[in-house]
Write a structure and sequence with these properties.
With 367 residues, this protein is of the alpha/beta class. The chain has two domains: 163 residues, 3-Layer(aba) Sandwich (D-Maltodextrin-Binding Protein, domain 2); 126 residues, Periplasmic binding protein-like II (D-Maltodextrin-Binding Protein, domain 2), CATH 3.40.190.10. Helices cover 47% and strands 14% of the residues. It has a six-stranded mixed β-sheet. α6 links the parallel β6 and β7. α2 packs antiparallel against α10. Bound molecules: calcium ion (CA). Calcium ion binds next to loops.
Length: 367
């Protein structure tokens, strides 16, 4: 009996083990499926940024019929936010969703693929990268780090930031502890501010504790979500430092080169779609959030005085031009960007800018 009970028990245990095995996912290779890990610099499901990364992942997965799925990791879930680039470069992760100015410590050329003070707007930036030679130079730059880069979102023109006192002159920036990433941060350091770059999730605690006096983040929709209005009440515009910030997704180059032609086409199309979906979502949601900030939360919206913008503009020209000293690919990117900026200003004067001015003339729709 004892032996029979033992055998029965063994059979049950065996059946249990078999059942347990059958509930485990089959190895991806056996199913002919591939899963990519995407790390991001954004808090989980943060409006527009985290949700944009999730939407991109869903679209790649759906367009491939599930043969290529993307799993998203929020900031800190797999690696700390600012280590996303190294994680993809080394193959710890397959792709990132971020803004490339976070990698300016690797090369200052990365700034041009996120935002440049007094640089290109969202539509101009997209035009430069897709049709003005920007992508080829970005590929060359990122290849050095084992990454294939894509545009994958755009915030549009950002706001200038949150301040706990008014900005009336350049003196108000002296010693100001402000969160501002990229070349914008360098511009503010040049006029005397103590600018720091912090990942999104660290900004509110820093502002609340007084570790920083002021911050920029994105625009009304994103800034409302972080609750900066609880600490500061002056909300300045325009965001001269980020006139159309590109969000980016870089894919590990070996992973990219190992993909089939159809998977490459799916990723390329999903990235371009996300660039458009993202910008349109920011433009659709910002004004409603601004009304909440000013109406419900009594935030005061102010424009930077023109003399301040003029001085910051001069410092921006020096900082942006100064990246040439890095030489190599950085100088090539700078030249291409500045050429495109010149032609964009010329065309925008007759197109967007002229139309926006005309639209402000008094008239009424018929009917
Ligand atoms: Ca920003």
């Amino acid at each position: 009996m004892k032996r029979r009970e033992f055998m029965k028990g063994a059979a049950v245990a065996g059946a249990g083990a078999a059942a347990a095995v059958s509930t485990l996912p089959k190895p991806a290779i056996a199913q002919g499926k591939k899963e990519l890990k995407m790390v991001t610099t954004w808090p989980k499901n943060f409006p527009g940024l985290g949700t944009g990364a999730e939407r991109l992942a869903r679209n790649i997965t759906a367009m491939s019929g599930g043969s290529l799925s993307v799993k998203v990791f929020a900031a800190g879930e797999l690696v700390p936010p600012f280590e996303s680039f190294d994680a993809v470069s080394s193959g710890t992760a397959d792709m990132y969703h971020a803004a490339d100015y976070y990698w300016q410590g690797k090369s200052k050329a990365f700034n041009f693929y996120a935002a440049v003070p007094f640089g290109l707007t969202a539509t101009e930036q997209t035009a430069w990268i897709h049709h003005g030679g920007g992508q080829q130079l970005w590929d060359e730059l990122s290849k050095g780090f084992g990454i294939k880069p894509f545009m994958a979102g755009n915030t549009g023109v950002q706001m200038g930031g949150w301040f706990n006192k008014e900005v009336n002159s350049l003196e108000d920036y002296k010693g100001l502890k402000i969160r501002m990433p990229g070349l914008g941060g360098e511009v503010l350091r040049r006029i005397g501010a103590a600018a720091v770059s912090l990942p999104g999730g660290e900004i509110f605690p820093a502002l609340q504790s007084g570790a920083i006096d002021a911050t920029e983040w994105v625009g009304p929709w994103n800034d409302l979500a972080f609750g900066f209005y609880k600490v500061t009440k002056f909300y300045y515009y325009p965001g001269f430092h980020e006139p159309g910030t590109t969000l980016s997704s870089g894919v590990n180059l070996k992973t990219w080169e190992g993909l089939s032609a159809d998977h490459k086409a799916i990723i390329t199309a999903a990235m371009a779609a996300e660039n458009d979906l993202s910008l349109s979502e920011f433009n659709a949601r910002n004004n409603g959030a601004l009304n909440t900030l000013t109406g419900k939360h009594k935030v005061t919206v102010k424009k930077f005085p023109d003399p301040v913008l003029n001085e910051i503009g001069k410092a921006s020209g020096e900082v942006v031009g100064g990246v040439r000293s890095e030489g190599g690919i950085t100088a090539k990117v700078l030249d291409s960007f500045l050429d495109f900026r010149k032609q964009s200003i010329a065309w925008s004067k007759l197109s967007d800018q002229a139309y926006w001015n005309a639209r402000l003339l008094p008239f009424k729709y018929a009917g």
